[in-house]
Amino acid sequence: MTLWHQVLDYLSVNGEDVRSAVLQHLYLALVPVVVAFVLSLPLGWAVVSYGWVRHPLLTLTSVVYTIPSLALLLLLPGLLGTSILDPFNVLVALTVYSLALLVRSTADGLAAIDASVVQAATAMGYRPLRRWFAVDLPLSLPVVLAGLRVAVVSNVSMVSIAALVGIGGLGQLFTRGFQLGFYMPPILIGLVLSVAIALVLDALVVIAQRFVTPWARVAAR
Amino acid sequence: MSLDYLLDAAHWSGPDGFPHQILEHLRYTGLALLIAMVIALPLGVLIGHTGRGAGLAINLGNAGRALPTLGVLMLILAVTGVGLKPVIGALVVLAIPPLLTATYAGVSSVDRGVVDAARGVGLREPQIALGVEVPLALPVILGGVRSATLQVISTATIAAYVAQDGLGRYLFDGLAVRDYPRIVAGAVVLAVLAVVVDALLALLQRVVVSPGVRPRAGSRRRTALPQPER
User: Fold this and answer.
1) CATH 1.10.3720.10 for domain A3-214
2) Is B144 exposed, middle or buried (0-12, 13-18, 19+ CB in 10 A)?
């Protein structure tokens, strides 16, 4: 039986498992990105607005970012009081990593805005909060979304680690393959699906970027 | 969270002790990084200098980020069988993309005016690449070395799931017998090791980068216009 047949065979027998692994993978990878994105907006704003926040906050996030994912995943139960098998640990760990990436890109994006545009908006009568959402944030989006792409793609690949602790997602297919004596089909299926999900989500962010920054298209013409 | 296992002096000596496992961990990491650098750095300089294969360097960097390390490790071991060499091989495969992309990006972003000037004063192409472009690109290249190092330290842990020694032992053995203090000890040592190695590389980045290349303190891009009152 060729490898290709083995793969099809595996899918026909375990299709339901693979499908639920994909769904759980998406859930575990995407919820943290969304949470981190929302949190990164006020934090990025604080970094740009208050100079003294910059150094401690960015140092903290980059130190946290250096901690290997498996170590963080296993330390969190002790810190949060959760069980080791609780998917909540994965959500928190990935939120922390995504936040470390996104705070920096949000701060860079906000810092790179042309100050004269902001002044023009203020002169036209925008109140600070409204101006921030209507002018500052949209103008920072190209840099912010570049960071979001990195966060989405690395989250999708990092979720697999959770399987080592016994939490679901496509990583389960890797550990299954290992338990079956390095049986190729599940390993291959998991690898292909994980990379495919990462590429599709990356493309979706790029498409979203075209919609939310229409002026970039005009300028490129 | 109990730190008993970590603070027990008995776990700090002998073949099962932390010092031995830390050294084992660093041995795999160092070996894999060395091989990856021998492959990726010259290739990155070549691509950056000539501009040929730039698409490859960029796409490889993106693809590398999308690859789940656990899956790559399992796939390579499924093909080659378990052992030290396949594990090192998997670590090398994972370390090449960040190294290659950073080297390419650093070299290709060197000011073309500087390169033309070097050519104008009569330097040969290899001299330009090694004597001008590499020193100027060094901060970016070392940034790539830092992220590749973190990647490898992290993945070398996972390798313990399959076979090898190293700090992953504490995590997986601890998980197997539900000994949380042992897991905590392994995770803390691993996290500290990663942070310390990264800090040392950051220091190296400062020492080896020529003072003329170093971004000056306070020269961070700021707009000249006064900020409106908030």
Assistant:
1) yes
2) buried
User: Based on the number of CB atoms within 10 Å of its own CB, is B224 exposed (0-12), middle (13-18) or buried (19 or more)?
Assistant: exposed
Q: Select from B12, B32, B28, B1 the least CA-distant residue to B170.
A: B12
What's the predicted TM-score (pTM) here? 0.87
**From first to last of its 221 residues, what are the pLDDT tens digits of chain A?**
788 888 888 998 888 999 999 999 999 999 999 999 999 999 999 999 898 988 899 899 889 999 999 999 999 998 999 998 899 999 999 999 999 999 999 999 999 899 899 999 999 999 989 999 999 999 999 999 999 999 999 999 999 999 999 898 999 999 999 999 889 999 999 999 999 999 999 999 999 998 888 887 776 65
A window 99-118, beta carbon within 8 A of B = 111-112, 114-116, 118
Q: Which of B66, B78, B183 has the CB atom closest to A187's CB atom?
A: B78
Chain A positions touching B179 (Cβ under 8 A) are: none
Does the CB of B69 have a partner CB in chain A at under 8 Å?
Answer: yes
Q: Which of B:159-178 have CB within 8 Å of A?
A: 161-162, 168, 171-172, 175
Kindly provide the ipTM of the predicted complex, given to two decimals.
0.87
CB atoms B184 and A112 under 8 Å: no
Domains defined for chain B, CATH in brackets: 18-208 (1.10.3720.10)
Each domain of chain A, given as residue ranges in start order, spans 3-214
Phi/psi for A55 (5° steps) reads: -60, -55
